[in-house]
Design brief:
alpha+beta; PH-domain like; 3 domains; flat
Amino acid sequence: MSATYRALASVVMLIGFYVVALLQLAAVVALGVWLFGHTNGVVTGKLLLPLVVALGAVGVGMWKAIRTKNEPAPGLVLDERAAPGLWATVRELATAVGTRAPDEIRLVPEVNAAVGEQSRLLGLVGGRRTLYVGLPLLQAMRIDQLRSVLAHELGHYSGRHTRLGGVAYRGRLAIGETIERISPRNPIGWVFKGYALLYLMVDNAASRRQELEADRASVALAGTEAATSALRTLPALDAAWAFYMRRYVESGWSAGLAPDDLFGGFAQLLDARRDEIDALRENAPEREPSRWDTHPPIGVRVAAMTAAPATGPGADERPGRTLLADVAGAGRHLQSLVVAHGSRRVLPWPEFVAESVAAGVQRQADGIYRAAGRFTGTPSPGLPTVLELVRSGRLGEFAEQFFDGATRKEAAAAFAGPMETLLDNAAVRSGRARWELSWTGPARLVGPDGEPWDLADVAELAVAPASVDEALARLAERGVDVAGATVVQSRASARNADLIAGLANIKIDGREHDVLVLDNGLVLIADPGKAGEGEKRLTALVGSVPVADLAARHPYLPYEEITSVEVRREVPLKATLTLFDGRTVQMQELMASEFLEKRSRDTLLTVFRRING
């Protein structure tokens, strides 16, 4: 499909959206005239108001779409001094595909590359061009693979694909804004949603064809091997970035810390785990084609690349980072532009990992200490509380809650695992051990001399009444202060929690609330707003701020504080939650209640069953 045809299709489809709106407006006017002639004005107004509101949303959506500017994405603008090799390569490839080179190159934090053009008059007049290059690509790919990626993006320019960016962007924005403002119960909304799906099918199909067109430039200028290997590298690199953020960054970030070199850390991970990333690339599962995809599946694209003629140069296995004058400095500069550290303490990687892992272990220990406090009635529980349970022969009774189906004897023996966590925490708090960064595996606990500290054998001794004193003696020899290991966070928080469901307009103790269901507790938002807007309200709420912040602003009920749940009716839900302190919470679903997603009630019932064991 040519770029001109897609432009025409996009414009026609967008015009059709408003033709549908005008036809419905005419139908509403005709219905209003008929109703006014057969009923009174009050009845006519009540019946027509929802339809008029829906059509008003069309105007709002169109106005917002027209006024919205498609500004360049944030990133680090690279000049000739910062990226001499990259600029030279881009200009060479632009000439080869027969197009004008971009006006600027922006380094961005994504595992991606893209092009944009601020065109005018629905794409008839070209504008300023921007090439976006993800720093992770420069860190991970060879030069020949990067040539393939860059040739693909420049192929979008030569195919005039970017001219349509403004049309497609505003079309999707106008339709999205319109649908967002119409209640799901409004019949006019059903028509618009159906048209929106048709619009996306047409536009996405054109987008997939354009990707295949751009792939031909990739093969022609970089060669088949470089093009196909670069394409297969992208999902593996994306998975590596997600792993890096989850394993190395997020725990410290949520603890109020930030690494001083976010992108440099990723480069070190790539070097340390090269074999794993290669295995990910070679064993990536193939995805089935879908009419809703903007890109064809990788298997389809690789097959087309293999069949295309390749005239590119030979392999160039030099690392792509050499295209920048100072990749480490560029990474730090990019971090300063796109990462908002807020009040977090910025630390070098060794200190960042040591403190973030220590904070995570403390959170695990706090959960055990709080459980011990509830079990024993101790207001300030800690490691001495747990060790006293061992000494008194009550560890098995206490530990049953952590091991479903285990006998008390089995639970006491199995508690050696959690006990090791408590001892590790005590060793760090005593200043005798620290967590050491490793890019090839989990952080290691090391002692003052840098040698690994393994407290597993001491933990085995510490869970048996006959050997607990020996365990304490070994800890004392190492300088570990058992008495100083106490609870830090006396009540569970929603830090690191994930949202799993949401229910709007639910009565909690007789008062309406919105309820966010997290994987470790419930956020109760009182007096949320009128019925009929619950799903929309929940969607906007959870998309605005992290759930941990919402839990800090509103009453938060951790699951660990709920001893049992009596579900008196599942549909509509009616339940009584009994807390460890003896209080009860009444929960009741109303006829006007709405869900964040269809299975929200089932998800909450699953949580209740888990609480009851």
